[in-house]
Amino acid sequence: METANNMAEFEALLEKSFESGTPKENTVVNGTIIAIEAGQAIIDIGYKMEGRVDIREFTNASNKDAELKIGDQVEVYLERVENAKGEAVVSREKARREEAWDKLERAAKTEERVDGIIFGKVKGGFTVDLDGAIAFLPGSQVDVRPIKDTVPLMNVPQPFQVLKMDRKRGNIVVSRRAVLEESRAEQRAELVGNLAEGNTVEGVVKNITDYGAFVDLGGLDGLLHVTDIAWKRINHPSEVLTLGDTIKVQIIKVNKDTNRISLGMKQLEVDPWADVESRFPIGSNQNGLVTNITDYGAFVELEAGVEGLVHVSEMSWTKKNVHPGKILSTSQEVEVKVLELDKEKRRVSLGLKQIQGNPWENFLNGNPSGSVIEAEIKNITEFGLFVGLGNDIDGMIHLSDLHWEKFGEEAIKDFKKGDVVKAVVTDIDVEKERISLSVKALSKDPFESAAKNIKKGSTVTAVVSKVEDSGVEVICEGSKGFIKRSDLSRDRAEQRPDRFSEGDKLDAKVISVDKNSRKLTLSIKALELAEEKEAVEQYGSTDSGASLGDILGAALKDQDEKSD
After folding, report:
1. Stated pTM of the model
2. Which of 52, 105, 257, 350 lies deepest, with the highest CB count within 10 Å?
3. Measured between alpha carbons, how far is residue 58 from residues 25, 27, 39, 53 in Å?
């Protein structure tokens, strides 16, 4: 019984000694290289156990030229105590990986940086060797800004920040950008502390955008806005700056909370607006260059940094609703007049039309009222003619100024577009921009001469010009007159207009002379009655026994004899 107990105790002690003296599988153990043959290192891990490891497992991205020699102490990963050949199955690569993972886990917890080497490129990023552990570096985490050429970053030892790791799945994600941002933040804080507003510093143009340029001040970027590059108008920063240029800039503003710096170049130059009033006095004529055209006007550069606006209303006297682009073009040299100047607001109002002069004033100076001009008919309307007078101005001939005797459609039918007509300048209103002309003023008013010679009650000889149902139109002394139907004869049977023809001559008495309506009213009936009365008085009366026919016959006979 005692012997059995002793044997059990001995077996337990022996098993315990074996367990304590034999390394565990899937652990990292120390070993010694005892031989190198056929590209393999034979490693003694103790306990009368030896294993073989390919020499290539002892090299990595950072130690490609490592040389092994007998007696070197190495750490290997024990996968199995014994294989079919009776040798231990060991791996240097797995040992290094386990060691790296332990190191990475500690670094991830303490947010420490780890060294690694970018050795390959994969979809979406790069592969990094972290001393045995392979990590993924996303493309967005390579640098603070996108970079085109990553070749200089390959196979170079450099620090990384562990972002995420999963030991079970074997996934590690690292960032180079986080390390750069941390270091740049430290540099930036130091630089910001040394920068003061108003200081002049040098920097390198590292990026150009539509709104400005970013300038590297030595680890810290500042924004040079396009409006602060030069006093003159600049459409794009690339007109003045080029990537890589070393430029002098002034620090305009520093925000230490956000580490943002605003820079300026034009502040280092003399402000052209300082004495603008003396160089461009109001009322003076200046030469300039059209730099920009908008819907409301055009900007003209008087000199570098000084621009003025020619408003659309100040461009032309005659072109009222035309886009400025149809009058001026960019890069065109123009002469303008300074109308207004505000130094504080940096505004100059310019005028283009003032240089040309008011065309209505110019016309008045050359063609005072009463002048005779020749002009081409540009347009015919229901109320008159418009003729071109040069310099894009027109004159108007009203219907009432076309003819002394013709009116309305009758007066205008003799004219057509394109005809050249003579006319008299009757009125010029510069403020209202109107010029009135008259064709009929070229000749005297025939009615005025007729009115002088023709008196009410006088007898005249007229020529029939028109026969109407209501009467007869006649011409007398060059003026028109009219005989109503009822005045064509004392005899009702003879009061017929159709008994007259155009061109017939007739005698009639003047009933009225209306200068306002320019009308003569005649009457044959009145003349007949007057003649009858005269005959009765001269040759007798019906009371003495003579008939009216006898009296009129004697009067007519006497009249014929006198005419003979």
Report:
1. 0.46
2. 350
3. 21, 18, 11, 9
CATH class of this structure's domain 19-96? mainly beta
Given this model, what pLDDT does residue 545 score?
46
Q: How far is CA 217 from CA 160, 191, 200, 202, 245, in A?
A: 25, 9, 11, 7, 12
Confidence of residue 177 (pLDDT cuts 50, 70, 90): confident
The CB-side HSE value for 427 (13 A sphere, CA atoms) comes to: 10
Q: Residues with Cβ < 8 Å from 241, sequence gap 6 or more?
A: 205, 208, 213, 224, 229, 247
| C-beta of residue 478 within 8 angstroms of C-beta of residue 446 | yes
Coil vs helix vs strand at 235? coil
Give the separation between CA 247 and CA 208, rounded to whole angstroms: 14
Is the domain 111-181 a CATH 1.10.10.60 member?
Answer: no
State the Cα–Cα distance between residues 484 and 335, nearest whole angstrom.
Answer: 69
What class, spelled out in words, does domain 195-268 have in CATH? mainly beta
Q: What is the CATH code of the structural domain delimited by 276-356? A: 2.40.50.140
Structure-token match 């009758």, residue found: 410
Residues forming CATH 2.40.50.140 domain(s) in the chain: 19-96, 111-181, 195-268, 276-356, 359-442, 454-544
> For 90-124, what is each residue's pLDDT tens digit?
766 666 676 667 777 777 777 788 888 999 988 98
Q: Which two tokens stand for residue 178?
A: 């986080």
Strand order in 89-91's β-sheet? 49-54, 40-46, 27-37, 73-80, 89-91
| CA–CA distance, 147 with 115 (Å, rounded to integer) | 21
pLDDT of residue 359 exceeding 70, the answer is: yes
SS3 238: helix
Longest dimension (CA), the chain: 211
SS3 100: helix
Q: What are phi and psi of 377, to 5 degrees?
A: -70, 120
Residue found under tokens 């540099």? 187
Place of tokens 């602060």: 228
C-alpha distances (whole Å) from 361 to each of 357, 368, 393, 412 are: 8, 10, 11, 29
Question: Which residues, in sequence order, are CB contacts of 292 under 8 Å at separation 6+?
Answer: 233, 298, 299, 330
